[in-house]
Amino acid sequence: MRDTRESRLLLVLLIAVAFALITVDIRGGENSPVAGVRQAAATVFGPVENGVAGAVDPIGNAIGAVRDSDKRHNKISALQAENEMLRQKLGSDARNKSRLNQLDSMLKTAGEGQYGIKAAQVVAIGAAQGFSWTITIDAGSNDGIKRDMTVLNGEGLVGRVTTVGPSTSTVLLANDPDFTVGTRMENSDELGFATGHGDRPLSVQLLNGKAKVNPGDRLVTFGSQADKPFVPGVPVGEVVKVDPSGGALTRTIYVRPFVGFTKLDIVGIVIQAPRTDPRDQVLPAKPQPTPTPTVTVTASPPVSPNASANPNQNANANANPNANANPNQNANANGNANPPPNPNGDPNGNANANGEQ
Fold it and tell me: What is the pTM of this model?
């Protein structure tokens, strides 16, 4: 349509009519005179509107999803970070609980042996020192650590300090082949020298070739001069095998260490030796075997099928109501019963010593 004066006038007229119809429809409410026209238009154009909406809605949803993707991504990232933090907290709590148990056990051992200790944590294993069984701890000369100090934990002997730095130290473990420590047997006090064999039991040379040793016997450290490198009384291990003596001057036994050298975490360096040798007092009490219950079966005597068959038959001979009916009837010295009353008039009817009347 060309932009002329007539077309402009028509447009103004249509707008005026539209406003008039809108006003009439609003004021009429439910009784509006144009309600029928509106319903007819809805019937005709409703399907078209639904089709257009169905085609347009996915596009709008996609646009909205793209617009909100950053918010959702941030929310997912926040949830993931929170979950990771919770997992770390749970793992940290379990590890702290394990360390607390190790520290409590070590303090108990130190208290029983009267050892003054400095606690430390294992921070490395001995790869830097070659093939030796060593660990690195986070305590050094700044903490009062010196060379040739005994190292222990709650289970027993860990090793000895070999190298000391300002903040770290190297510990040679008791299962290293170059490790040797003097030992004392529990109860018998037999002395020997234990040597490490890696992941195998320690071998101990007893000085007494005729010493009586059995599997299950336990050993502690004997101690060194001036308590370096070993203090006395630290638990070493338990005997698992005994070689026959064969008349030799010494005897070899094999000992399983109390300490698990592959799972060390918290250790203690003995910086003050005990005043007196604790001997085997630091060893834990041996578990008592569980008693086996004993069942005793007592056989009852067989019951005769004829027993008490007669209800009038009693076991007591005195149960006869006619027994001893005669109060004057007595037994004689030979055990014979008195006869019936004397027919010759003896009222007592007593029998003589020979059973005669």
Answer: 0.58
State the burial class of residue 163 (Cβ atoms within 10 Å of its Cβ: 0-12, 13-18, 19+).
middle
Cα separation, 44 vs 139, in Å, equals 89
Q: Two tokens at 340?
A: 């019936």
Give φ, ψ of 76 to 5 degrees. -65, -40
Per-residue pLDDT of the chain (357 residues; tens, 9 = 90+): 556 777 777 777 777 777 666 666 666 555 656 556 555 555 554 555 455 455 545 555 555 555 555 565 676 777 777 777 766 666 667 778 888 899 999 999 999 999 999 999 999 987 545 568 999 999 999 999 999 999 999 999 999 999 999 999 999 999 999 999 999 999 899 999 999 999 999 999 999 988 999 999 999 999 999 999 999 999 999 999 999 876 678 899 999 999 999 999 999 999 999 999 999 999 988 877 666 666 666 666 665 555 444 444 444 444 444 444 444 444 444 444 444 444 444 444 444 444 443
Q: Which residue stretches of 114-230 are H helix? A: none
How far CA 213 is from CA of 236, 252, 353, in Å, comes to 16, 10, 80
Residue among 110, 102, 49, 88 nearest 233 (CA) = 110
Pair 239, 253: CB distance under 8 Å: yes
Phi/psi zone of residue 151: left (φ > 0), alpha (ψ -120 to 50 degrees), beta?
A: beta
Q: Which residues lie closer than 8 Å to 252 by C-beta, 6 or more apart?
A: 203, 204, 205, 206, 243
